[in-house]
């Protein structure tokens, strides 16, 4: 059987027949990986005899696919209401973060509600899966278990049990190999081929598919980038071994909102969902220390209150330190420059430490106002008004720009006892008997009035 070499970019999935140090499509350096491909694959495509397909139009009624709703509400939220039949989901995360645990819990829960699940593992034996299920207290459930890595065996097993199963879990896609491809499991060609066969089977027999994917050292899903385009939903399970909580985030979702998150804590019995994450990330609604403010963030459609902490100390080195945890260090440099020019607070001779409490990572620019308030409070050694939250983007001119979805942020703050809302351009004409105060901050200079 003749074979030929090709080089696939791990970043964009483009193929070239010669190695280059830099991908010609996405300009990424050192991203081309060698694949050995059998010519028989291409010959089969060339000589294949297909069937005439049925053509549909948009004006015809669609077949509504009912969602498979589990009792794990945080997972349902991220998926947009539950699992959809004929859909393919890819979930990634750091090793040991809880991907397999979450999926085993999902299968166990669904199996108690007349939804049959097939859990296929290429990393663990059946006995190892049973031991893990025993530790999680899931031994009384009817989960179907298989340990396999050959894609042909897996496809045959799924077809033989297609009348009995509704969900198939593959743990993980990097361990599955196709013997027709002369490269080891986990290579770009193997991952792409195995995923394509599984996704095609999913659409054909009408089941849901969840594949676990490994990630690289920089946090990206391993394998070809095209894998993320092939599936319907891409989920990331985020967290740290230093914290109990785990965030399940939807990076892509054809059947729901992107950037939606579900919050869990890792306990002895597995992942436990957190219905009100704001209470987990803030200690109380009274600011008792200087340099501390509360930010009303938005994660997808969910408002979460987080604590922003700043510490400023004199520096005894030529270049003062700028340390940031949970936020963009470049954004901090911009806020410090705006404070120096537009507010009159120069911190060039001081070390600045900024932290998002609880280990949460914030990316939205609406945190600017809370960061500025914390820095000003830390520099003046004065506490901010109690029961206060801040949100708003700061421009280079020092003006405060409006944040998205202010109503959801404010309602979450009020629910937790916050009464002073510092934002911009907000008015609620429909509210009566307000038990909170709105402070519309137009420019960063107005923060002087609250200290």
UniProtKB/TrEMBL annotation:
Originating species: Orientia chuto str. Dubai
One annotated GO biological process: recombinational repair
Name of the protein this chain belongs to: DNA repair protein RadA
Hydrolase listed as a keyword: yes
One Pfam family here: Zn_ribbon_LapB
Gene giving rise to this polypeptide: radA
GO CC terms: cytosol
The organism's place on the tree of life at top rank: Bacteria
InterPro entries per UniProt: AAA+_ATPase (IPR003593), DNA_repair_RadA (IPR004504), P-loop_NTPase (IPR027417), RecA_ATP-bd (IPR020588), Ribosomal_Su5_D2-typ_SF (IPR020568), Ribsml_uS5_D2-typ_fold_subgr (IPR014721), Rubredoxin_2 (IPR041166)
Residue span of region Lon-protease-like: 351-451
Keyword presence, Manganese: no
Swiss-Prot/TrEMBL keywords: ATP-binding, DNA damage, DNA repair, DNA-binding, Hydrolase, Metal-binding, Nucleotide-binding, Stress response, Zinc, Zinc-finger
SMART domains the UniProt entry points to: AAA (SM00382)
Protein role: Plays a role in repairing double-strand DNA breaks, probably involving stabilizing or processing branched DNA or blocked replication forks. DNA-dependent ATPase involved in processing of recombination intermediates, plays a role in repairing DNA breaks. Stimulates the branch migration of RecA-mediated strand transfer reactions, allowing the 3' invading strand to extend heteroduplex DNA faster. Binds ssDNA in the presence of ADP but not other nucleotides, has ATPase activity that is stimulated by ssDNA and various branched DNA structures, but inhibited by SSB. Does not have RecA's homology-searching function.
Family: Belongs to the RecA family. RadA subfamily.
GO molecular function, one term: zinc ion binding
Binding residues for ATP: 93-100
Motif RadA KNRFG motif: chain residues: 252-256
Domain RecA family profile: 64-215
Alphabetical list of SUPFAM superfamilies matching this protein: P-loop containing nucleoside triphosphate hydrolases, Ribosomal protein S5 domain 2-like
Entry text on domains: The middle region has homology to RecA with ATPase motifs including the RadA KNRFG motif, while the C-terminus is homologous to Lon protease.
Gene3D superfamilies: 3.30.230.10, P-loop containing nucleotide triphosphate hydrolases
């Amino acid at each position: 059987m003749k074979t030929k070499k090709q080089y696939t970019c791990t970043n964009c999935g483009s193929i070239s027949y010669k190695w280059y140090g830099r991908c010609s499509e996405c300009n990424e350096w050192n991203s081309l990986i060698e694949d050995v491909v059998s010519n028989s694959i291409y010959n089969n495509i060339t000589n294949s005899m297909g069937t005439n397909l049925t053509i549909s139009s948009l004006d015809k009624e669609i077949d509504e696919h009912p969602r498979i709703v589990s009792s794990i509400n945080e997972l349902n939220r991220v998926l947009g209401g539950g699992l959809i039949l004929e859909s393919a989901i890819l979930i990634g995360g750091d090793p040991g973060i809880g991907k397999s645990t979450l999926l085993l819990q999902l299968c166990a829960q669904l199996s108690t509600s007349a939804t049959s699940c097939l859990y296929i593992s290429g990393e663990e034996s059946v006995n190892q899966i049973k031991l893990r299920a025993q530790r999680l207290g899931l031994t009384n459930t009817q989960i179907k278990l298989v340990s396999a890595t050959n894609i042909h065996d897996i496809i045959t097993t799924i077809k033989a049990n297609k009348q009995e199963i509704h969900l198939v879990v593959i743990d993980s896609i990097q361990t599955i190999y196709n013997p027709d491809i002369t490269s080891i499991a986990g290579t770009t060609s193997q991952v792409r081929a195995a995923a394509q066969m599984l996704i095609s089977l999913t659409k054909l027999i009408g089941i849901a598919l969840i594949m676990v994917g490994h990630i690289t050292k920089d946090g990206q899903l391993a394998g070809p980038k095209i894998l993320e385009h092939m599936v319907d939903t891409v989920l990331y399970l985020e967290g740290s071994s230093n914290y109990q909580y785990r965030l399940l985030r939807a990076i892509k979702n054809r059947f729901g909102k992107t950037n939606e998150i579900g919050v869990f804590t890792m306990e002895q019995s597995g992942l436990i969902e957190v219905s009100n994450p704001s209470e987990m990330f803030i200690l109380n609604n009274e600011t008792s220390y200087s340099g501390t403010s509360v930010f009303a963030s938005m994660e997808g459609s969910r408002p979460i209150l987080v604590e922003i902490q700043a510490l400023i100390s004199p520096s005894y080195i030529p270049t003062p330190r700028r340390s940031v945890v949970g936020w963009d260090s470049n954004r901090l440099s911009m806020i410090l420059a705006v404070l120096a020019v537009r507010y009159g607070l120069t911190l060039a001779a001081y070390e600045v430490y900024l932290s998002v409490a609880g280990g949460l990572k914030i990316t939205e620019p609406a945190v600017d106002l809370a960061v500025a308030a914390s820095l000003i409070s830390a520099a003046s050694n004065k506490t901010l008004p109690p029961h206060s939250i801040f949100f708003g983007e700061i421009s280079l001119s020092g003006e405060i720009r409006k944040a998205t979805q202010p109503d959801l942020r404010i309602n979450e703050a009020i629910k937790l006892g916050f009464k002073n809302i510092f934002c911009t351009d907000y008015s609620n004409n429909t509210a009566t008997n307000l038990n909170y105060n709105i402070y519309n901050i137009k420019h960063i200079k107005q923060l002087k009035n609250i200290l």
